[in-house]
Amino acid sequence: MNSEAGFWWGLVVATLSGSVLAADPVRDADAEMFPAGVAYDAAIPTPEAFLGRPLGAAPVRHHELVDYITTIANMSDRLKLEIAGYTHERRPILFIIATSPGNHARLDEIRTQHNALTEPASGQEVSDSMPVVTWLNYGVHGAEASGMDASLPIVYHLAAAQGTRIENELANSVVLVTAVFNPDGHAQRVAWLDAYGSQVPNADPQHAEHDMHWQFARTNHYWFDLNRQWISVTQPESRAWMSKWYAWRPNVSVDFHEMGPNSTYYFHPGVPARTNPIIPAAAESLTAASVRFSEEFLDAEGKLYYHAEGFDTYFLGKGSGLPFVNGGIGILYEAAAARGIELQTPLGLRTYRENIRKHFRASLGMIRGALALRQQLLDYQKDFYDSALTEAAGDTVKAYVFATPGDDSRMYHFLDLLTWHRIQVYDLARDITVNGRAFAAGEAKIVPMGQPQYRMIRVIFERFTEFADPTFYDVSTWTYPLAYDLDYEALSGRNFQESLLAEQSAVAMPAAAAPDGPDYAYAFAWSDYYAPRALNRVLSAGLMARGALQPFSVRTSQGDMSFDRGTIVVPFDRQEKNPDEIKAIMESVAANDGVTVHSLTSGQSTIGTAGVNVGGRSFAELQQVKVLLIIGRDTDLYNAGEIWHLLDYRMQMAVSLHDRDRLDGIDWKQYTHLVFPGGEYENYMPDYVDRIRQWVAEGGTIIGIRQGAYWVRDNVLDYVEPVEGEALVPDEDLETGTGHDDLLDEEAIETERYDYADKQDIEAADLIRGAIFSGDLDITHPLGFGYSDRNIALHKNLSDIMERPVNPFATVISYQTPPVLSGFASQENQAAIEGTAALIAERKGSGSVILFADDPNFRATWFGTNKLFLNALFYSKAFQAPAE
């Protein structure tokens, strides 16, 4: 036994025996992890024997989990271990297939027959020998670590349990275990607990052990909530487990979590009124029936639990949501968090071991529940896909057609999303016009509704604006064509014919041919998603680049061409590199960024003196950007992580992260841009705010997003330096006095009265929990470059108002009327928001202030508005203040 294991073993033995703390009924009740009456193979080590400490004594480090599961898998003929993939920090995600040795011998046959149930054309029927497939996913939120540690006893039980029950379960089931979904987040949590853990367990809620920054450990490396990635699949972790999930298409998927410590134990069914309408009613009945063994276990032990409160099945992009639109059911389990090893709560002592044990026993219950419903679950899976074709035939929408003019990269990412979800996409066979919008053959794509994934197509494409219940656990909509800023239309029966379908679309990252030349200069359009990455590549190589502020037409090696605003021109004049070296860099742009580079043979306009010459004033000199991204405990790490991921991972741009409370010591001259993401700003007024204002006045660009935008506006953009010796007069006092008398005038106050039972619904109606709003984008403004359509979809989850500034040119985006494209927002909120500013760009001294009312980088899914944020970097000083 190593010294670390010895330390923890001694600590827990002392604790559980009562020599450190007095005997506690909670600790005594949870001392026995495994069910009584089950014999285990003595040759296979328990987690406790392998780790050298009981489960729950300390968090299991990821390398310990990998070592243990690898060891057990090598010892058991019931287990097959695979590596599903790797995290950003290169940790493996383990995938375990547990079934009988006989089933392992024909595993490919079992999987092929099982998946054939999801393909109506196969003619596959449910047979008596067909196993039910149960998926157990652990540890998607790193801060909820009992979900990770529960994977050890379940793998041990599947490998070592003996008797007729386990033999029957494995003979008639394939149990899939993912351990774990989020190793990087879990590692953050373990590091915190190891740093602040004590020899004597400390249940004091104010102890540092229990005060971990939950977002930091909950998320992956770039601070993404991986349980919102089941549809978006933008992270390597989700792409790893989703590849296995779709390879098996489970009947039951179970997701283990933790919630606030002042709760009991929750599991589905969710709130009935908040069930997504696409989910078949039969799935809800199967959900209720599948959890009965968990109920029996908790009832037998007198443990409190609940269903149908707080959690719902409306948002389908979670582990307990997506299964419902893929022929299975999803079950969410939530344990009351102990945070550390143990925690004192109003409901008594919570222990880490207690949560591990509950999740482990619930896992056993779900395996039993799935087996008990084997016939019904398999029949349901087959009927789900058979009925999908029937429902598609009756749907008035027969297909969706879409395009991304001038941006093959964004098209690639959307096609990648669809194919991940087994949706068939075809090239458009001929030109068509729908609702006045033209779609060209060879560029546009088409998705017919008549396919097995009909319901999944609805999930991705449909808009929803009517809701039975305005309360949402997560976002109220996720219409992906709007998020990707596609030109798209639905085709009704009279507009759709099978002849519109050409070949099935290939999914490949765009490739660009090497440019001609060198001749006079090089140019590439700003419309491609990866054009900012290409520009950064050019600037990082030390080249000068110019951005077009007006459209222009010039000669190229391929003939006369017209270019739009935002086009990047790399001249040969006054460069420190020779033309051949410049060509090599542009070849790298074409090869690595998939951006087409054109060789200009002249700088003269091809339309005469009325046109724009390449050497004229209608171009802005662009500089390499150096971004300082503000983070910290009071910032929204989800929001900050999206920016970090966009710049570092996608655009391959360096970005510096710095704590908000330590800005006083930085070298301001190193940075061109300062980004304040969303977060808590109510009490933020640092001593160095004057230095921030000075930095902007000297030429820096400050960007505020969501709550950060309001703080930047109040303290930088609209800030007025007080005149020495004069008191500032509040605006409301200028004409009407203090207004205090008005507040005291009881006749002027009309107070509504409501029943307390309606409190939740009334308060929910005041919130915007993720809706898609329509914006009018000024595409002539530098921050609108790269867009050809003034209509833009914005993800919005704040009801705060950003009033338009006095400067008539500063509102780059305003909300349209009506403002909501999809999702829920009350009529009051819609009326207040329409016409207000969504994006403001103002000059301040020699610098710029840019304010986003919404998050343009939401969950790495809003490919359609990423360009707005990138324009705020590269084109932040390409516009001018109004003339005096």
Short description:
The chain is α+β, with helices and mostly antiparallel strands and about 900 residues long. It contains 29 helices and 34 strands.
Outline the structure in words:
The protein has 884 residues and is α+β, with helices and mostly antiparallel strands. The chain has four domains: 3-386, Aminopeptidase; 395-504, Alpha-Beta Plaits (2-Layer Sandwich), CATH 3.30.70; 521-622, Alpha-Beta Plaits, CATH 3.30.70; 627-718 and 761-874, Class I glutamine amidotransferase (GATase) domain (Rossmann fold, 3-Layer(aba) Sandwich). It has 29 helices and 34 strands. It has a nine-stranded mixed beta sheet, sandwiched between helices. Strands 2-3-6-4-7-9-8 form a seven-stranded mixed beta sheet, with helices on both faces. It is globular and about 90 Å long. The N and C termini lie far apart (78 Å). Mean pLDDT is 93; it is low at 1-23 and 730-744.
Spatial strand sequence of the major β-sheet:
27-26-28-29-34-33-32-30-31
Distance between the termini: 78 Å
Give the count of structural domains.
4
The value of Rg in angstroms is 30 Å
- Average pLDDT, rounded to a whole number, is 93
With helices defined by DSSP (H or I, 4 residues minimum), what is the helix count?
29
Which class of the largest domain in CATH terms? Alpha Beta
Q: Which structural class do you get from the secondary structure elements?
A: alpha+beta
Main beta-sheet strand count, sense and barrel state: 9 strands, mixed
Instruction: Provide the CATH superfamily of the largest domain.
Output: Zn peptidases
Categorize the overall geometry: globular
**Overall CATH architecture of the largest domain:** 3-Layer(aba) Sandwich
Q: What is the CATH fold-level name of the largest domain?
A: Aminopeptidase
Portion in helices: 25-40%
Share of β-strand residues: 15-25%
